[in-house]
Amino acid sequence: MVPRMAARKIIIDTDPGQDDAVAILLALASPEFDVLGLTAVAGNVPLPLTEKNARIVCELAGRPDLPVFAGADAPLKRTLVTAEHVHGKTGLDGPALPDPAMALQPSHAVDFLIDTLRDHPEGDVTLVPIGPLTNIAQAFERAPDIIGKVAEIVLMGGAYFEVGNITPAAEFNIYVDPEAAEIVFRSGVPLTVMPLDVTHKALTTRPRVDAFRNLGNRTGEMVAAWTDFFERFDKEKYGSEGAPLHDPCTIAHLVEPGLFTGRHINVEVETQSDLTRGMTVADWWRVTDRAPNATFIGDVNADGFYALLTDRLARLP
Ligand SMILES: [Ca+2]
Question: Three-state DSSP class for 125?
Answer without folding.
Answer: strand
